[in-house]
Specification:
Number of strands: 14
Structural class: alpha+beta
Helix content: 40-55%
Shape: globular
Distance between the termini: 39 Å
Radius of gyration: 24 Å
């Protein structure tokens, strides 16, 4: 191994000073930050918030200081169905309600996995992975679908936000510490000879403790409720004594078994036209496993366009922090001139970014519009985010088609919008990926 020598530092400094623009760039960046210094302005087309096809989706929601984008975006897809059926202008489904049950189910899922891996070494990669983030906020579409199948949904007025749902860090931290302690208890009991019946009795008490902590933090979720509102014609609506499962069936009524996750992972280890799943990725024990069909990015676009032409919005997952500007709401590969600022290229391809840990899905949002050029090709997409109304155009973002190519990893589509060949692929036995695979990432 070779250290950086003093003469190397002198050479670096001399080369820096020889490029006169470096000093100006240094002063600008020190005072303003990297991205504001190299923000590219002047591409008017990228900032146009008009689209040849767009779907009315309601006011933008706000996940605040929580990692619930996957819930917010999924509920934003579902709320449109309620708004149509009840003829109401704006509406929100409770985001705190699925949060409660997700934490409860993730706790159970984690403890089940701890029992399953009792023979694995504590220092091994598998157990270390399980202990890293037992019940974090992030999630996937199939995980949300499992919650809805089991628990239904409720209007926001029936279970509103709390301090701990809007700022989950403290609650998550305490629950994580508790679950790691439970894992220790289970593994120590197994070492001392506890049989399966004893371990599962212990687990039952542990889940009861988690339920108590969640109820104190978030409030108890409703078993049934009455929902009251007025429609666009000022007609009063009262839906009385309905359960969350009944409300979903009657007023959302999306057949969740029809919705399929399509991914674009162009890496050598994941051939296209194959099904994939990820070990230990889930939340509800006994629920449908997370399943993906890996297709080309053009195939993802065609499926999204087909669904949107039919008036249906599209849930999608992407790496939102790459090449995007929060203030303007522009997501475009040319939004920052990073190479010009630092006089160096960043040449990794989408596949290489996945392989080398530089990118993965980090955030879920909703496609609510698309602009097609004179040749019928998409050039920009309308994006409903869940960061409140301050960023972008009242919370809506504009995504360039080139950004879609590079940083969109997943969309959720009703399988009727797939081609006949793609529908046949859904019957393939999924290839099981390791828990730490980038396709196992969770949207926050």
């Amino acid at each position: 191994m070779r250290a950086i020598a003093t003469e190397n530092l002198a050479s670096f400094e001399s080369a820096f000073e020889d490029m006169k623009k470096n000093r100006a760039l240094m002063h600008a960046t020190v005072n303003n930050g990297i991205f504001p210094t190299c923000l590219v302005k002047g591409d008017e087309a990228a900032a146009v918030h008009e689209f040849s096809t767009q779907i009315e989706a309601g006011k933008v929601t706000n996940q605040k200081k929580s990692g619930r984008c996957w819930m917010f975006s999924a509920l934003n897809v579902m709320r449109i169905e309620v708004m149509k059926k009840l003829n109401i202008e704006n509406f929100e489904l409770s985001q705190s309600y699925p949060l409660f049950y997700d934490k409860l189910e993730k706790s159970n899922y984690f403890l089940e996995n701890i029992i399953e891996t009792l023979e694995e070494p504590l220092s091994g990669r598998t157990v270390a992975f399980l202990l890293t983030d037992p019940l974090g906020d992030g999630g996937q579409w199939d995980m949300f679908a499992n919650l809805v199948r089991k628990y239904g949904v409720v209007p926001k007025q029936c279970m509103g936000e709390s301090k701990s749902s809007s700022e989950t860090r403290t609650m998550d931290g305490l629950l994580t510490t508790k679950l790691r302690g439970f894992a220790c208890e289970l593994r120590e009991a197994a070492k001392d000879g506890a049989d399966e019946e004893k371990l599962y009795a212990m687990k039952g008490d542990m889940i009861a403790t988690v339920y108590r902590m969640l109820s104190i933090s978030l409030g108890k979720p409703p078993v049934s409720f009455t929902f009251e509102t007025r429609d666009k014609d000022d007609k009063f609506i009262r839906i009385k004594d309905i359960t969350p499962q009944q409300f979903y069936k009657e007023y959302v009524s999306m057949d969740l078994d029809r919705y399929i996750s399509l991914i674009n992972a162009p890496t050598a280890d994941k051939p296209y036209d194959k099904m994939y799943t990820v070990r230990f990725l889930g939340n509800v024990v006994g629920g449908r496993p997370v399943r993906y069909l890996n297709l080309s990015v053009d195939a993802l676009k065609q499926a999204a366009l087909a669904q949107m032409r039919d008036g249906k919005v599209v849930w999608f997952g992407s790496d939102v922090g790459k090449c995007s500007d929060r203030d303007t709401g522009i997501m475009d590969v040319g939004i920052h001139d990073i190479s010009g600022l630092f006089s160096t290229d960043f040449p990794l391809t989408k596949a290489q970014r996945l392989d080398y840990g530089d990118s993965r899905m980090t955030h879920a949002m909703v496609l609510t519009g698309v602009n097609l050029d004179e040749n019928g090709k998409p050039d920009r997409w309308k994006v409903e985010n869940s960061w409140g109304e301050e960023p972008g155009d009242k919370g809506y973002f504009v995504m360039s088609d080139s950004w879609f190519d590079q940083f969109v990893y997943q969309i959720v589509i009703d399988k009727k919008y797939l081609t006949a060949d793609q529908q046949q692929m859904l019957a393939l036995e999924p290839i099981v990926l390791e828990p730490w695979d980038p396709m196992g990432s969770l949207a926050l």
